[in-house]
């Protein structure tokens, strides 16, 4: 018996993608906790299936702990750590990986269902498959990142960490964009996907630079080099920048310079986003401009508080969480900009 055709259901698909986007935001927040608690190297193997379950016996916990004791982070930083302390960092990395798998299931299982029901609108099948594939790629990038800290380093590569974070945020933006396209299609069956405009690309690039700088600051623990604001250790341009290996190496590796750049590029990013809000408000939009103003103000405030608190973990986590929300709101705003010009 063959399955009878069912009309496309763009509204239902849009709600589904919004739910997955919220899950991605949660994964990003837990990733921030994992980073701040130095938990990322506590699981030294990548087992996509069997790794779903944590150790369930004392013997299994001791075996995992022994694996951790073989890596440089334990030998050079956490030597003598108790089993209880190991279990605490193991939990955050395990939870981060579980949530990542959950994102994959949340995309693949409903997608298979909607495809079987023939409820995916024409032209959207490849986009949804691409989103699911991106989750798989993100898992591989995550392991590639972890692997960089298991042999010759006591931490993961900040380049790989940035790749991992930016891929997650790109996935989030793509989910929001596709959800909004589907929402528009639900209201107007003749609607076409919104284009990304030239000004939209400029805003996206400016924000991406800030996100990249933030990832590098996190990866190099550069937030700890100064705890005053707006000065850095009583100087506007911090002392201690190492230029001996050239400008490019300093821009991509020096903690003092990266902290400085992340602080002040944020104002350029904020200006770009506020100009976007102004353009949308003049065109009659209300929700997106208000959300942009709110999230930009919150993110700037949390960034300053993160610094002056000496990197309070929960303030820093809120800073990363709000950064993810900012990406989602920006994607929605740029979609509105493209819809108006389509």
TrEMBL record:
Its cofactor is heme b. It catalyses: Fe(II)-heme o + 2 A + H2O = Fe(II)-heme a + 2 AH2. It is a multi-pass membrane protein. It comes from the Bacteria. The chain crosses the membrane at residues 16-37, 98-116, 128-146, 158-179, 200-226, 264-281, 290-308, 314-334. One of its GO terms (molecular function) is heme A synthase activity. Belongs to the COX15/CtaA family. Type 2 subfamily. This is Heme A synthase. The gene is ctaA.
